[in-house]
Structure formats: structure tokens, C-alpha cells
Amino acid sequence: MVDLTELPGMPDSIRILLREGGVESAELLASLETGEILARLDEAQRRRGLETRETGETRRPAIELIRVWQKTAREVLGRRVEAPVSEAKEVSAESLKAAGIGLDVIPVAEVVEAPPPERPDPPRTAPSAARLQLEDSLPVALPPPSAGPGPGVEESGAGGRSRVAFEEVPGMAGSETPDPDRAALAREEEQLRCPVAFKPLEEAPAVAVKGERRNRGMSHPEAGLVRWSATVTVLAFLCSFFATVGMMVVGVMAAFFDVAFHWSVALVLLVIPVCLFVYVTQGTKARCRLCGQRLFVPKNCRKHERAARSIFGHTFAVARSAMFRANFRCMLCGTKMRLKD
Q1: Least trusted range by pLDDT, from 35-39, 113-117, 150-154
Q2: How many angstroms separate the CA atoms of 184 and 192, rounded?
Q3: Tens-place pLDDT, residues 288-300
Q4: Are 286 and 339 in contact (CB under 8 A)?
Q5: What is the mean pLDDT of the chain?
Q6: pTM for this model (two decimals)
């Protein structure tokens, strides 16, 4: 607990009144409301008889001053919390005895000794039977020269020379009979040399999840209104575009090629304001279900990276998708919405 005397800027008279009111620490001062502190100060002044005789009112400090004292108390408490804690140090038994502290009065649960060092694993050696079979060579008995060609000797013909055909002995090189101990030892060495065979992720085949469905997007509750607004937007834009191009062609031909046109051609200019009026009244009603923005109104902002694009801009591309397709994507938030269930 932090005493009130450690708070700078607080008069001693206020500290006395706060202690009589039950506020004896900076923690309690910082946690109480301003009105509660004023009420306790008034009660302490009445006990001491410090109220004004004429009116019976007490002298209370300003609310801003009490808030300043509370802020100071919080700062002091914050510095106490952030203060570094002293680290534990090793103390020898001699220093404890010199200080008059016995080892029997120190609460120790158990004296823990250092664990013994681990013994290294003995090297792996081949079994004795396999070692004998690998190192020792087996003798082969040859037939006597005086005897005729035995079962293992074949005559070579006119020269009279004989050729010895050795029978295959189990365990020797070239034998077809496998040695189980040698095969087990070879497999164990192979596992120690390469325990696990890893395969790069790029070489792994793509696994298709069973039952995976294409994301059709969230359904729009006003699918008819969205499709109508998209149709109005596309038609109004195309009519205005072709009317503008037509009037430019008519003006160029009349100015440079002396081609005379009927005055009724000027009525094409009325198409532009009519299309603009229809677009403002009908094409701007549809809104996105997620972000709530108007779907077919161009905005000078950054569009979503997956929004549809065309040579006429994002608005025309989104309206075209909503007009001819079953789903489209909002150009602002990128939410995919479907117009058919």
C-alpha cells in the first residue's frame, strides 16, 4: 500500500480529512469516484466542526483538484508496478551461519541433487553368428586326382583336362539362398542412414476433396430488382454511347464533307438526358447485401482486386454480369452473390 504522504502536491490538512473519511491509501483514492471523495471530506469536516457558521456549509476542494490528486496517485502506483524486482542470488552456508541463521529454520521441501550424467549408447555391433559367417570362409573339399571324374568333375574332352564344378554352399558369394541375419543387418543400416524418405510438396499429386462444390455466393433477397437495375444501367450506357458517337459522325460529315441532314437528326441528342434520368431513377436502387453500397453507381475509390473489369469501367462490367449471368461480384467489397437458387 502507498501512503498519502507519498503523493506530491496534496496539503496536510486534506490528508488528515481523507484519513478521517476512511481514505488511507493511494489505491483507495484512485479507485473512488469524485463525488464519494467529496462526501467523505464533508463528513470529516462536520465531525471536526469546520463548517461555516452562517450557512452551515463546508469548504470543499474543487473537483478538478481531486481529479489531479487521483491522477497523481495512479502515476505513483504505476511507477511502483514498473519498478524492477531484485533478482534472487545464491547465498552460501557460511554467510548464513555468519548472519546467525540456521539451516534448520529455512523451509526447504527437499534437497535436490544434480542428476547423474547420461551414459552414451554402446555402438551397434553385428551379431556373433553373422560376424562369424562374414569373416570365416568355409572349406571346400576337392575330389582325389586318382579317382575318376566324380559328380562334381566334368571332363573337357581330348586334352584330358578336367574341370571342377563347385556346388553352391549356403552363405557364400553367388549363393541364391538369402541369409536372414545379413538381410536384417542391411535393413537396419539402411534405416539408420536414411530413417524417413521425404517427398517435396511440389512433386505430390493434387488431391481433390470429395464432395467439394463450387462457391456460388450468397443469395440476394432482391434478385429481380438487381437484374432490372443492371439491365437499365447497361441499356442506358449503350444508348448514350451510340447517340454520342452518332452525333459526332454527323457533325464531322456535315462540317468536312458538306453532307446535308434533316433537322430531325438533332432529336438524337434527347436520348442522352432521357437515359440519364432513367438510370438515376431505376439503375441506382440495387444495393450490396454485405456492404450496403449501391451496386451500379461508379465511385472514385479503389475497387476490389477480384471485381469484374471491362473497357467501359467496373460499373458496366458488374451490371453486365448481373444482367446475363446467375451470379456476380460486388466491385467494392468483392462479395459473390447469386440471383438464382
Answers
A1: 150-154
A2: 12
A3: 988 889 999 998 8
A4: no
A5: 75
A6: 0.39
Question: What nine digits make up the cell of 180?
Answer: 536372414
- The grid cell for 237 is 450506357
